[in-house]
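Bumping with the actual sequence this time:
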Amino acid sequence: MNKAELIAELAKRRGLSLKIAKIAVDTIIDRLKKAIINGERIEIRGFGSFSPRHYGPYIGRNPKTGEKVQVKPKRLTYFKVGKELKEMIMGAKKD
């Protein structure tokens, strides 16, 4: 599912116009982005959590040449799937 499909699904399920649904989705995504940029952890119960992870510098290898290269420290977003979603994916959840 892409963003346009999510907007269409929200509009359909809640009887909203596409314009209002787009505003809602954009607002949520923008807030999630700001929280992650500010180093905050985001938890959506039943779905999962997003948190920034810091990775220190290390010596890597260029796969083409085999040359060693210094990799700079970086901060990336880590997603951990929630228990409920994990169970649904694995087929363990019974309705």
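The tokens above came from a reply further down the thread. The mean pLDDT is 93.
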